[in-house]
Amino acid sequence: MPSNKNNTELVPTAHSAFTVTAPTGPAKVEYISSCELPTTFATFQLHAFFEAATGKEHLALTLGDVADGQPVLARLHSECLTGDALFSQRCDCGAQLETAMQKIAKEGRGVLLYLRQEGRGIGLLNKIHAYRLQDAGADTVEANQALGFAPDQRNYRICLPMLQHLKISSVKLMSNNPRKAAALTDLGIKVTEHIPLIIKKNPHNERYLLTKASKLGHKF
Ligand SMILES: Nc1nc2c(ncn2[C@@H]2O[C@H](COP(=O)(O)OP(=O)(O)OP(=O)(O)O)[C@@H](O)[C@H]2O)c(=O)[nH]1
Ligand SMILES: [Zn+2]
Questions:
Q1: Which one of 84, 107, 209, 218 is CB 3.0 to 4.6 Å from 176, fit for a cystine?
Q2: Low-confidence residues of the chain, pLDDT below 70?
Q3: How many angstroms is it from 8 CA to the middle of ligand 1?
Q4: Is 152 in a helix, a strand, or coil?
Q5: What span is annotated as the signal peptide, if there is one (predicted)?
Q6: Nearest ligand to the C-alpha of residue 123?
Q7: 8 A C-beta contact, residue 58 and residue 29
Q8: Segment 9-29, tens digit of pLDDT
């Protein structure tokens, strides 16, 4: 841990501004509204959902007719404010988001669920704590554990009501995380294809990607 000049630095402890344990059992997610979302890739339909148990607002972007019963090109994207909005090079999230939207635009049909599971479910404040621990030598899994969390706090139950609302029952999944496909299958969503979403590594995310492969089971 880097120390400040007065040596008053505290080891980060988990911030409990909200519950970080994803609710179990069938997820209750209410559909709220939809609008057009013109982007640099295509003009998507943006659908808003509300999860009362956590107070979280989840989003779905769709392009084309996703309700025709054919497998839909799909991305379940876990929120990463630093990567998705602030161009962070610590992870591969921003580039994965961009690539997924590009692929959907190219196909002319697809869905992206933007899930508010920041920091693999521990929230933004705790992710910053975890990054601080990583700056001091921990890997991404050790950092979560040092804060008292599981390496990955996410579950994907909220996807079911969102996909049901969109009338999507089978997907071609863009992900390197086998747990996402397994979770969808458990929920009764057919995964007809696994499409890797591999992003070029850089010196800042190399260790993170290696740890994802060796400790979290991601396939690269
Ligand atoms: N706790 C924690 N979360 C992180 C860290 N780096 C990225 N994240 C979060 O991890 C989530 C993305 O998960 P990843 O493991 O990168 O990828 P994935 O979603 O499991 O798999 P893919 O579908 O292949 O992208 C986002 O919510 C990020 O905010 C970290 O060091 N610690
Ligand atoms: Zn990220």
A1: 218
A2: 1-11, 16-22
A3: 30
A4: coil
A5: none
A6: 1
A7: yes
A8: 556 788 765 555 667 778 899
